[in-house]
UniProtKB/TrEMBL annotation:
InterPro entries: CarboxyPept-like_regulatory (IPR008969). Residues 159-184 have a biased composition (Low complexity). Residues 1-25 form the signal peptide. Keywords: Signal. SUPFAM superfamilies: Carboxypeptidase regulatory domain-like. This is Carboxypeptidase regulatory-like domain-containing protein. The lineage of its organism: Bacteria, Pseudomonadati, Acidobacteriota, Terriglobia, Terriglobales. Residues 139-184 are annotated as: Disordered. The keyword Signal applies.
Length: 184
């Protein structure tokens, strides 16, 4: 059983909800209120990352999407690959120009650009081991990298410890013979 006070409170709350519903309905009147702008169509993008030498999937690889649309920067989005080497994203607008960058430890960074023209896009990226840098002075095409992949630390060569004792003198004195024809 409800008390009179609770009934009044309930009746006032119901009246307030009804009044606010009427006000908000009139605010969206097409003749006078703000206009509804539908959301742009969104594309489903899937990137599969594999090792280039044996086609096995690479898990936990950073896949970075940088989207621009009509000269407007939409920002960067980073997604990690799952155990099957797949990274999926569903927030890029159709018609965007996208720069894709794939970064994995021990592999050369991969980068490409593409336009989202449809509602879905699938890509296969095969990462390669690092190669020697391109040089104007030397032909490094196809040569392996000089530095092994992974985190590099500076190696400081160890020097021999300095000795504090002077070099030992020979045990026997050196004897010299006088040249022939000289007398002492």
């Amino acid at each position: 059983m409800l008390s009179v006070f609770r009934l009044r409170k309930f009746a006032l709350a119901a009246a307030a909800v009804t009044a606010s519903g009427l006000v908000s309905a009139s605010a969206q009147d097409p003749a006078h209120g703000r206009k509804y702008k539908p959301l742009p169509p969104i594309a489903h993008v899937v990137v599969t990352v594999e090792k280039g030498f044996n086609s096995k999937p690479l898990p936990n690889v950073a896949v970075v999407f940088h989207a621009t649309r009509d000269g407007r920067d939409d920002g960067n989005l980073e997604v990690k690959t799952d155990p099957d080497g797949r990274a999926a994203i569903d927030v890029l607008e159709v018609g965007s120009h996208v720069t894709l960058q794939v970064i994995a430890t021990g592999f050369a960074t991969y980068s490409t650009e593409f336009d989202l023209t449809g509602d879905s896009k699938e890509m296969l990226v095969k990462l390669q081991r690092p190669r020697a840098q391109v040089s104007v002075y030397e032909d490094n095409d196809g040569k392996a990298a000089q530095v092994k992949p992974g985190t590099q630390e500076r190696v400081i060569p160890k020097t021999a410890p300095a000795t504090t004792t002077p070099p030992a003198a020979p045990a026997t004195p050196a004897t010299t013979t006088p040249p022939a024809g000289e007398t002492r």
